[in-house]
Amino acid sequence: GPDSDGGSEELVLTPAQLIRSLEQAWLNEKFAPELLESKPEIIECVVEQLDHMEANLKRAKREDLKVSVHRMEIERIRYVLSSYLRCRLVKIEKFFPHVLEKEKSRTEGEPSILSPEEFAFAKEYMANTETYLKNVALKHMPPNLQKVSLLKSVPKPNLDSFVFLRVLERQENILVEPETDEQREYTIDLEEGSQHLIRYKTIAPLVASGAVQLI
């Protein structure tokens, strides 16, 4: 209804727009050094769309050329979806303490970076890691070294790494930090359609807002 708060609005996308959003999320996830905001509503819609396409195929005539084209399209979407989810799991395994920390410290209205399933996975992964360290690695250490901080010992995502991007919506006055101490920081405009190689943390908010696409 009109009084429902932001989180619950339905995504109304055509199938083509839906698949495009999935592909954008997938490419961004693939090239961003950190775990990005989770997109449960896109995943849900894509899975529904796939079911719908499968059902349509069952009704179609076998020898129809369209059938094999649709079959290929379904396979491609399945590939992108599973690659996207796998890419996220790899990052969760790699950065689990930081990911959980970020999830714990986010404020009420902030979007989650983990789906409920990913959150459960990350917590279990953390618990297993801690158990493993206690039982295997740390048992043989002197007592003063038996406490280990996973936050300190697991590398953080490197937000200073460089990414390629394409600009989808023109941006003005993007602040670029200097490469070396001698340089001053400066601002640039990002023209729609232009491509850049730029430090990830400079444009992280633009990836999140959809203004740029990592490539």
UniProtKB/TrEMBL annotation:
What Pfam families has UniProt attached to this entry? Sld5, SLD5_C
A single BP term in Gene Ontology? double-strand break repair via break-induced replication
Principal localisation: nucleus
Q: Which domain of life is it from?
A: Eukaryota
- Domain DNA replication complex GINS protein SLD5 C-terminal, first and last residues per copy: 157-215
What does UniProt give as GO cellular component?
GINS complex
Compartment(s): Chromosome; Nucleus
Keywords noted in UniProt: Chromosome, DNA replication, Nucleus
| Family matches, as InterPro entries | GINS_A (IPR021151), GINS_bundle-like_dom_sf (IPR036224), GINS_Sld5 (IPR008591), SLD5_C (IPR031633), Sld5_GINS_A (IPR038749)
- The GINS subunit domain covers 65-136
Q: What protein family is recorded?
A: Belongs to the GINS4/SLD5 family.
**Name of the featured protein:** DNA replication complex GINS protein SLD5
Species the sequence originates in: Nyctibius grandis
Gene expressing this chain? Gins4
